[in-house]
Design a protein that fits this description.
Rossmann fold; alpha+beta; 2 domains
Length: 233
């Protein structure tokens, strides 16, 4: 199968290469990856990881083979998942407790942009919970974490004030305002229910630091598919 690998000594920093198929553990499902997203922490890791390292944490796709121990979604289920690495590939082995079903109304590209950014926003807002009736100030509201934080805070009953850089504010202000005023029916609704129904757990600060995410905000909606990669090559 094809996968993106780190090539620090090559003519380009990354390359698409043929690699071995994943070998899932009993608690892991085999997922056909339809889309994955880029996070700043991953991009920074290219500078320090060795030749052949395979990145990729946020993925969305379809379960090809369910986990051998009977846990998690069945084969054929559309899922979003968070893996430690090697997600930028055609297939990935995913622990059953780190994936959740995706509604048919949510695209793979949209779903793939949610795990790191969504969990970061959720974990941050939990520090101030409960939010009902509170005033919440969200900076960087035009970014991946920020726009999800706006929606989650509004859906939690907060009065949201969102701040974004001037170059982003004109383009995104109407979207941010709509998110802050009424997040019903938006992707935040699905994100909230998905996180509540799954076993996703926000990473601790130490875990984020190990993965290179600490002080590295996610880049929202930067999702790619193997179809788009192939057409661009």
């Amino acid at each position: 199968m094809r996968a993106i690998v780190n090539t620090p000594g090559g003519p380009e920093p990354i390359a698409i290469r043929e690699v071995a198929e994943p070998e899932p553990q009993p608690n892991e499902a085999l997922v056909a990856v339809h889309a994955f997203s880029l996070n700043r922490g991953e991009l920074r890791l290219f500078q320090v990881r060795p030749e052949g390292w395979r990145p990729g944490q946020d993925i969305a796709g379809v379960v090809v083979r369910a986990a051998g121990d009977g846990t998690g979604p069945a084969a054929g289920t559309r899922v979003v998942a968070l893996v430690d690495q090697a997600g930028w590939a055609e297939r990935a082995a995913v622990p059953s407790h780190r994936m959740a079903p995706v509604a048919d109304t949510v695209s793979f590209a949209a779903a793939a942009a949610l795990p790191v950014a969504g969990l970061t926003a959720l974990r941050t807002l939990r520090h101030g919970a409960p939010l009902l009736g509170k005033r919440v100030l969200i900076t960087g509201a035009a970014g991946g974490v920020g726009n999800l934080a706006v929606q989650l805070a509004a859906r939690s009953g907060a009065r949201v004030t969102a701040i974004a850089r001037l170059r982003n504010s004109t383009k995104r202000s109407s979207y941010i305002a709509a998110s802050a005023q009424d997040s019903r029916g938006s992707i935040a609704s699905w994100l909230t229910s998905t996180l509540a129904a799954s076993n996703f757990e926000p990473l601790t600060a130490r875990q984020q630091e190990r993965r290179g995410w600490r002080n590295s905000p996610a880049l929202g909606a930067q999702s790619l598919s193997w179809e788009s990669l192939s057409s661009g090559l």
